[in-house]
Amino acid sequence: MNARAGQAPETGDLAALQERVGYRFADPSLLVRALTHVSALPPSQAQRRVDSYQRQEFLGDRVLGLAVSEMLLEHFPGAEEGELSRRLADLVRKETCADVARDWGVGEAVRLGEGEALTGGARKGAILGDVCEAILGAIFLDGGFAAARETVRRFFHEKMLNPVRPLRDPKTALQEWAQARGLPPPTYRQSGRIGPDHAPLFIIEVSVNGFESVEAQGSSKRFAEQACAQKFLVREGVWEDGE
Questions:
Q1: Which residues are catalytic?
Q2: 105: left (phi > 0), else alpha (psi -120 to 50), else beta?
Q3: CATH number at residue 206
Q4: What is the tally of helices (H) and strands (E) in the chain?
Q5: pLDDT tens per residue, range 42-83
Q6: What is the spatial distance between Cα 151 and Cα 153, in angstroms, rounded to a whole number?
Q7: Are residues 141 and 177 in the same domain?
Q8: pTM of the prediction?
Q9: Domain CATH code at residue 81
Q10: Together in a domain, 194 and 115
Q11: How far is Cα 137 from Cα 145, in angstroms, rounded to an integer?
Q12: φ and ψ at residue 55, rounded to 5 degrees
């Protein structure tokens, strides 16, 4: 697939993309619009934003959120609202959508202006994430929610079961871990500071009742606290090293 800057993908390229997405459009113009970045349209075109993928991206974002929310309720019947919200946020974030767009191989099919194409727009995560949502919006317009839901389930299910990013920041995870055991919240204190004034390193200690405290350092107190919490979670086997 090799759509040139500003030009629509050829019919064969669109057919191949539909094959990878797993959906055949009754109205292929919806897919073409989903692939059209605003920079690909002439500046003189009064409706250039309307004719780009932006409106379908807006719709696809909502379709994705609903389909993923439904999927989460089915697969995690015992999860509370907070966990569901974190899982939802991870799955609908631009980075995850960009990963799906790469799975579809949409990069070379995206219509871009010459300047955006020359600066690597077809590889930019923000654009790929937008295009993923725009395609989902296009599928909804073409085939309804059932078709869009099926596409979401096909490509987001594995990502739901195996998130590549921690669903919680270390401090929040440690606090929830302590609360689940009936313990008071962890306490943090600065136990030292090293380095020059223009580039200090803060040493922070975290304590949880009944457990040995942990120290870590960071370029700010906040970073050091996060490092402490992560180190504690790894030591206790709650998180794997590298999370």
A1: 61, 133
A2: left
A3: 3.30.160.20
A4: 10, 3
A5: 877 656 678 899 999 999 999 999 999 999 999 988 877 877
A6: 5
A7: no
A8: 0.68
A9: 1.10.1520.10
A10: no
A11: 9
A12: -65, -40
